[in-house]
Design a protein that fits this description.
The complex is a heterodimer of chains A (about 475) and B (about 250). With about 475 residues, chain A is of the alpha/beta class. Chain A has helices at about 5-10, 35-40, 45-60, 100-110, 115-120, 140-145, 150-160, 160-165, 175-185, 425-435, 440-450, 450-455, 460-475, and strands spanning about 25, 85, 125-130, 130-135, 150, 190-195, 205-210, 220-225, 230-240, 245-250, 250-255, 260-270, 280-290, 295-305, 310, 315-320, 325-335, 340-345, 355-360, 365-375, 385-395, 400-410, 415-425. In chain A, a hairpin with a 2-residue loop joins strand 3 and strand 4. Chain B has one domain: Rossmann fold, CATH 3.40.50.300. Classes of the chains: A alpha/beta (about 475), B alpha/beta (about 250).
């Protein structure tokens, strides 16, 4: 196997690279109080939300773009970004039949049929197209058990008290530069509320898609599980191919009350730029879950394969006694992709537990870093953390880095950390070849074996998708 | 037409010439032993035949059932019926042995127009085949070779041979690292797989293995060539008189 055939395998063009032609209504580019007022006005928002945005914006003006991550990019001109884009509705959408057929075809191409397939798969889909929710299925069915699953804008309209209570309660606007920016300009996102004692009967799924060239995407997701409630939420992303970088700065907040359980799974496949690093999404995301009550559990599972730059640390704040936080991650980088991703586990309550399993795969000339913080406070006696960070290198021009930080402030807690670095070796590949197995299947099997501890935590449908995606992303990179 | 014909084979690794003109003919139903000191080129010969990418063929030719072996990629050679049991089987963490064996089996079956098996059917087959090497079926559920002892790794190699039913099986120092019981089990396994249609090539330092798998031909390699060929008596003579004797005679 020559390294050139390996390169060929890894260098498959992005399959979802097409642009849908839909009339788009945009707010002029750039950011100012006027633009924020305009966004808020277009969305008919209440005064308190406008205030939330404006104070976030004013705080953002005092902050600086973070520079500690191991990523490089030219300075972002925030005045060149379009902060609001919305497909022009032809009329009020009463049913799926009225959705722009062009849009439906886009979903078909993505393999995300909205109707029967998803119904059969038992998944309710809240589809975000650019920044506006086009349709929400299953809402009625979920409503029967008291679950609210809708766009954040609808929630602001229909359940303002819940949004007001929880928005920014886990990720305050002042948390970091991009969270502040998001708080000022977020235009869409999902809202999910599982009332006391309700187990959500199906996985909830949102497919994101960035479509308007040059428009930033500022999603905001808020999920609340009341006492004893549980929910599994799936987030999948794919984007069309563009030359200009697209900034994506989402915020996801999860709140789990006593005995509640939230499982949040992501498969991310945004445009990563071409093999020379031109174009691609900048994915600067703040994701955090708060285990507010006793015995609460929040689990993040992510498969990150896309974006030119990923800056993302899905975290858990373990406030309630005996609460549990989990982070299972596969991050794959190829070509000139840069990923700085990991998690923070902040133990505040007693006997809290956290598990971190991170698998980084680097190919091409990419840079893949794990950055993690495990912090066990003075009151969090009897707490435990187990961390495992494994890196796999493909080829000799990529890099893998691990930056674990551990702070323990009591003597009864236990922290374990394991790390390894391996390489898909010539001898492994030769073993497969000498048993008749071709390169692509060999790489796919080795990588899936490497990622098994993470994939086993994905919902089945996602696990299948993730397995295929990794194989596709690495085609041509091993040899 | 012979099964395998090696003519004047020359090969190098990292620019260093190792094989300097190997001639060898192997036919169906035969058992060959290739012996020699460390560095004589025995293992290199095995790897070159199987197509290890680190080795470069610099001269000569190899015909496998009359066809140029070097026109085939390593995986194509395996599908065509060439098998190499590794001296040092590599570990593949996270990949279950049974999944690996099934993928290998089905790939080879597909290329030969045979029937591919689903996991349940394959499980029946592999549990039957595993008896050949007296291996604990628990090893099927572990990662490929991970944490296996030396003997278990070698048994796993012979299990792969049993599943893939090669025409030519090259066993590269399969006896190294085996205690006497494991050696007997592995040898019994190989003997049970021997037939009038296939050939077995054992690469070894020692006479020991040849007490269990009796060769029809014994070849002695030295400095990248086969310098002497005889019957099983040659191995015994080597054991007694040492390699210097061959060298002096050659």
């Amino acid at each position: 196997m020559s390294s050139s055939t390996l390169q060929h395998l890894v260098n498959q063009p992005y399959q979802h690279g097409f642009v849908t032609e839909i009339e788009t209504e945009v707010v002029p580019k750039g950011l100012s109080e006027e633009v924020i007022r305009l966004i808020s006005e277009k969305k008919n928002e209440p005064e308190w939300l406008l205030e939330f945005r404006l104070s976030s914006y004013r705080h953002w003006l005092t902050m600086e773009d973070p520079s500690w991550a191991k990523v490089n990019h030219p300075p972002i001109d925030f005045q060149e970004i379009i902060y609001f884009a919305q497909p022009k509705p032809k009329k009020e959408l009463a049913s799926l039949d009225e959705v722009d057929p062009e849009l439906l075809r886009t979903f078909e191409k993505l393999g995300v049929p909205l109707h029967e397939q998803k119904i059969m798969a038992g998944v309710a889909v809240d589809v975000i197209f650019d920044s506006v929710s086009v349709t929400t299925t299953y809402k009625a069915k979920l409503a029967e058990v008291g679950i609210i699953f809708c766009s954040l804008s609808e929630a602001v309209k229909d359940h303002p008290e819940l949004v007001k209570q929880y928005l920014g309660s886990v990720v305050p606007p002042s948390d970091n530069f991009y969270a502040a920016l998001n708080s000022a300009v977020f235009t869409e996102g999902s809202f999910c509320f599982i009332p006391k004692g309700v187990k959500c009967p199906m996985d909830l799924s949102t497919y994101f898609r960035i479509n308007t060239e040059g428009s930033g995407q500022f999603e905001r997701t808020l999920i609340i599980a009341e006492e004893g409630a549980s929910v599994s939420y799936l987030e999948g992303c794919t984007a069309p191919q563009f030359d200009t970088n697209q900034l994506h700065a989402a915020v996801v907040e999860l709140v789990a009350l006593d005995n509640a359980d939230i499982k949040y799974s992501t498969v991310q496949n945004w445009y990563a730029g071409d093999e020379n690093g031109v174009g691609g999404i900048y994915n600067f995301v703040t994701k955090r879950g708060l285990c507010k009550g006793v015995n609460a559990r929040i689990s993040w599972t992510q498969v990150e394969t896309g974006s030119a730059i990923t800056w993302k640390y899905p975290s858990c704040v373990l406030l309630g006694d005996n609460s549990v936080g989990e982070f299972y991650s596969v991050a794959l980088t190829n070509h000139l992709q840069q990923a700085d991703t990991g998690t923070k586990m902040v133990h505040i309550g007693r006997n809290t537990k956290s598990t971190i399993v991170s698998k980084g795969i680097s190919a091409g000339r990419s840079s893949n870093s794990y950055r993690g913080l495990v912090k066990i406070g003075a009151r969090a006696t009897g707490s435990r953390n187990y961390s495992q960070c494994d890196s796999m290198l493909i080829g000799d021009k990529c890099s893998a880095n691990t930056y674990p930080t551990v702070e323990v402030q009591n003597e009864s807690s236990i922290v374990e950390h394991e790390a390894s670095t391996s390489r898909i070796g010539e001898d492994q590949m030769f073993l497969f070849a000498s048993r008749g197995i071709g390169q692509e299947e060999a790489v796919s099997m080795i990588i899936n074996g490497f990622c098994r501890d993470v994939f086993m935590h994905l919902p089945l449908e996602f696990a299948v998708e993730a397995t295929k995606l990794l194989g596709l992303k690495l085609e041509g990179s091993v040899g | 037409m012979k099964l395998l014909e090696v003519r004047g084979l020359k090969a190098s690794v990292g620019g260093v010439s190792i094989l300097k003109g190997v001639d060898l003919e192997i036919d169906r139903g035969e058992v060959h032993a290739i012996m020699g000191l460390n560095g004589s080129g025995k293992s290199t010969l095995s790897k070159v035949l199987a197509g290890h990418p680190a080795y470069t063929v610099t001269g000569g030719e190899v015909l496998f059932e009359g066809k140029n072996l070097f026109e085939l990629e390593p995986e194509e050679r395996a599908r065509a019926g060439l098998f190499l049991a590794f001296q040092y089987p590599v570990e593949v963490p996270g990949v279950s042995n049974s999944a690996f064996l099934r993928l290998a089996y089905n790939t080879v079956q597909a290329s030969r127009g045979g029937e591919e098996l689903d996991p349940l059917e394959f499980d029946d087959l592999v549990r039957e085949k595993i008896k050949v090497v007296e291996m604990d079926p628990a090893f099927l559920e572990r990662s490929v070779n991970e944490g296996f002892s030396g003997g278990e790794k070698k048994r796993n190699e012979i299990l792969q041979m049993a599943l893939l039913e090669p025409k030519v099986a090259i066993l590269d120092e399969t006896d190294s690292g085996l205690d006497i019981d494991a050696l007997r089990i592995v040898a019994n396994g190989v003997n049970s797989l021997k037939s009038a249609d296939n050939a077995i090539v054992m690469v070894t330092h020692y006479q020991r293995l040849l007490n269990y798998i009796v060769p029809d031909y014994v070849h002695v390699m030295d400095s990248g060539r086969i310098v002497k060929t005889g019957d099983k008596g040659l191995a015994l003579e080597l054991e007694e008189r040492g390699y210097e004797w061959v060298r002096a005679a050659a």
